[in-house]
Design a protein that fits this description.
Length: 432
């Protein structure tokens, strides 16, 4: 059976409706809204828009037809009203409360309630666009309070250092959101630095350090994940997986997390320091744009970086849907490939050079230690140096802290650094 969309409170019914996760906040800026949380799937056999009398009724009927797991209802309101009673409410014969029930209580059991608002319909593409709905409650205004910071924004990065220095005693919580992020290692790098700082200043025993991550793993590449788990154990850090920050009550120094395995179940943690990694996503201009994929990333070929539909459009960096980690190192490697691709396309030739997904994450694990993670599209290590890079090394710290800024300003930005592939080939005698 092809998919059905039920638009309740409109009198139309269309086959084949896809539900799209709506856009998220721009990479790097603060969390005004994102959406990965609002629906557990991006396709439903029957999608009902609106949870009024028509929507709830049809979802109950469709559940019987296709099974609860294949039906979802998009409805932003917490409360469902039996509106016919309002004649009597208006006439003073009934109280308003008698016409109201929680939306959750009228939703057929097992049918997914997508608590969001529909912003656009695209029946030609079988798409429904939803409002961004998962900004972290209490942010960004919570950053006006002390004890909270984020390395991901120019406005809040120095607040992290202040909170770190002001730390006295209690929970230090580091978060990872329920969206893709720029440099996925960064949310934990600041945790290792904080741990080292408190050790240095004699406060370590006063700190209960937690990494509350929406993910189910510590890092996507097994080799480095194993090394990081050792460090986490050795430094007595608690990791809570599938744990997503949904609210900050900065005045009370409380952070509220949702258990992603049990939607709706939340837990409140008191904090003495909170480092927030905000939800991120494509910029508004790309959401619904003709050059974007269904989420809003520029839709490019993963090897040539040429747009899949418009041959004179190309993509590089954070705005693309290249399935690799978004870092400056990835930009470097992509720039070399894209230069070749564009040169050939300009001569009416087909692109030949292929991007392998190279990206690098210098995992700062202390004030003089770095694990230099480098990997490709298959999450396989692709290391520049012929040594085990999963070990913490002082040399790699200097590379990150001293050499990389030089490389960035003087070579990458000037168009003379296309990533470390040539160095890697040399180091491995052309074998890698
Ligand atoms: C890199 O090329 C790069 O871009 C300039 C970075 O961003 C700042 C990096 O962090 C890293 C690690 C690389 C890779 C370079 C080498 C020499 C391994």
């Amino acid at each position: 059976m092809s998919a059905i969309g039920v638009l309740s409170s409109c009198s139309c019914l269309r086959p084949g409706v896809w539900l799209l996760k709506p856009g998220m906040q721009q990479m790097g800026s603060f969390g005004l809204h994102t959406a990965a949380r609002c629906a557990t799937k991006d396709y439903y056999e029957v999608l009902v828009l609106g949870g009024g009398a028509g929507g709830i009724t049809m979802s109950a009927r469709m559940k019987r037809k296709v099974g609860a797991g294949n039906v979802a209802v998009v409805e932003p309101s917490e409360t469902h009203y039996y509106q016919p009673l309002w004649t009597l409410v208006g006439g003073g014969a009934k109280r308003l409360a008698t016409s109201a029930r929680p939306t959750g209580s009228v939703m057929p059991k097992g049918v997914e309630w997508i608590k969001s608002r529909v912003t656009a319909l695209d029946p030609d593409k079988n798409c429904v666009w939803l409002e961004n709905d998962i900004k972290i409650k209490g942010l960004p205004e919570g950053f006006d309070h002390p004890k909270i910071g984020s390395n991901y924004s120019v406005h809040t990065v120095e607040k992290t250092w202040k909170a770190l220095q002001d730390f006295k005693e209690g929970n230090a919580i580091f978060t990872f959101p329920n969206t893709p992020v720029k440099c996925a290692g960064a949310p934990q790098k600041i945790m290792y630095l904080s741990e080292a700082y408190w050790r240095k200043t004699g406060k370590r025993s006063k700190a209960n350090i937690m990494f509350n991550t929406s993910l189910g793993v510590i890092f996507g590449v097994k080799k480095y994940a194993d090394a990081l788990l050792e460090i986490i154990k050795e430094r007595n850090i608690a990791v809570n997986y599938k744990c997503n920050l949904v609210e900050v009550r900065a005045d009370k120094q409380e952070a509220v997390f949702e258990n992603l395995d049990k939607p709706g179940v939340t837990e409140v943690h008191q904090y003495e320091m909170l480092h927030v990694t905000p939800p991120m996503g494509p910029p508004d201009v790309l959401i619904n744009s003709p050059v974007s994929d269904q989420i809003g990333w520029v839709d490019v070929d993963k090897e040539t970086l040429q747009h899949k539909k418009y041959p004179n459009v190309f993509g590089i960096g954070d705005c693309t849907n290249l399935p690799t980690s978004k870092t400056a190192a990835a930009v470097a490697a992509q720039s070399g490939v894209l230069d070749k691709t564009i040169s050939l396309v300009m001569k009416n030739q087909l692109p030949t050079k292929k991007y392998d997904g190279y990206t690098s994450c210098p995992l700062v694990t202390g004030y003089n230690k770095v694990i230099l993670a480098e990997f490709d599209y298959d999450a396989q290590p692709l290391e520049t140096f012929p040594i085990d890079q999963s070990k913490e090394r002082v040399t790699m710290y200097h590379m990150k802290a001293d050499m990389m800024p030089f490389l960035y300003w003087n070579m990458l930005l000037k168009g003379y650094w296309g990533g470390p592939a040539p160095v890697r080939k040399l180091m491995h005698l052309g074998l890698k």
